[in-house]
Amino acid sequence: MDHRPPVPDARARLEREAIRGLLRAQRRRIRSYTRDHYTDHQAAPGRHPSPQVPPVSGLPTGQEVLDALPLPALLLTPVPGDQGEIVDTLYMTQNAAAVAYVTERLPESVLSRWSGPVSLYARFPSLRRTPIVGMISRAHRDHAAQGPEAVEWVVGSPSGPVRLVTEVRVAPCGDQLLLTWEPGHRRHMATAAQQRVRTCWAEWNLGDDGVEPSLGFHQVLGLAAGTPPPTLSDLADTVTDDSLPGLYQMLYDVILRKRTADCTLRLPGRNNRITRMIGEPVRITPGALVWGVRAVLTDVTAEHRRRETADHAEQEARRQRQHAKTLGEVAEALREAVLPHFHDELAAYGLQAAAVYRPDAREAGVGGDWYKARKLPGGRLLVALGDARGHGLSAVTLMAKLRYALAGLAYTERPVEQLTYWLNETACADGTESTATGIIASYHPERQLLRWVSAGHPTPVLVRDGRATSLPAPPGGPGLPLGVLPGASYTADETPLRIGDIVLIYSDGLTERRDGDPDLDTLRFLDAAESSLRTAAPGPVREGLHAYAEHLVARLDGPHRSDDATLLALRRIAPHGG
Predict the structure, then answer these.
(1) N or C of the chain: less Cβ packing under 10 Å?
(2) What is the Cα–Cα distance from 104 to 111, expressed in whole angstroms?
């Protein structure tokens, strides 16, 4: 049997039909209610005789009709020229509301008392520069009402100019014109206010699908000016498919449950507007049938997009935190696996060692610093400290590569300058991003001699007799960082060690400052090494050396640090075999 795939919008069609069915059913209830309560089908002829019209004693005068108008009004007579154009307009009379408006807005000394017909522009000269002139001309020529139109004009007064803002209409009245106005062009202010807060309202009559929208309805919903306001059925046809369940539930609650409800509507189009609709039932009498739906609609597109952006940012932050946590755990495991924890295993060489490491908190504790101390054949000791380029797992991976490569190369028993040369070749072969700096050294206990090479790394510091000094650079100066240039050569320097001497090897993360001077960084390290020696002089045991190293790092560390930092301290304690 052939099973045809479901039509993609079948569910949406059913939901739209459910909304139309809900509205049709309510329309039938309203019509039935109307027949039962508002139409007397059993009235017999003559049951309601026609009322007798009382005799009219006198009709109201034109002025009385004018005064009955609730709006300020002027009766005008246009004065045509030889070619039929309006050359002037006579101000014939006004109603009581106009007099009250002028009395309220203008001081008594501004206008002379009106005593009869006078030129409108002679009495109010500033009106010549307003749209009223054109409105009068068109109303006279076309015999059609003009306006409403916003008009601003100014009347001088002893205390300063008085600005009048009105909404004016001009309509034919026989051979004359009737000019009326409302103070403050409230229509435009109401429209502007609705646009400013992106809110409008409307009332839908469920008996005949009539719609009474507010002035800002079209602008808030993004409808073209002049288009008929949508009925509730039209609204269901306009919104996106995912808005239909909410719209149905809102209408169901308002119409049948007779309670206030809301929903979110998405309007397709260039701006993909999102509107929140809050509806309430409209009833003629309490408890009676719901005759209409009155709703406030607010454009919440900007708020929704801000919320989506915030939610996305929060999700991204959670992902980054989880990533950082995972990265930190991996890095910690790698560091624990490759970085040694010194005890007294170097005592046989007449040395003590202590290391202090501070990760870069901004990079989840992941950095490229490394150090090593390894016994070698022939009774020598390999000592090294390096700083692999970058942050994150890539730096940790490079650090592990270089550390293990050096450990293997050291068993060749070649001098440290040759080991550094091979290590540079290894880094160069690994790629352009695999660069690092380092101090590669070997300690010869039988000669109490430290031979060391610098590959672009800060020079070690010797602490002797209470003074801290940088060791002299090898002949030709420090070599290039590892991984920069294949075939680069390196030169070693030799430093004899006395009992009590401390050699400090450190990474630049401990001293460098953003936009700082490397020479000043070195001087700061030397000063801190001497100050820490006076404040926390290391005792004879290894724990004393470690406490001194911790104190020195604490003096140099701070929020300015932008990299991980490592300090390796070596102290000669006794002659070899002593």
Answers:
(1) N
(2) 13
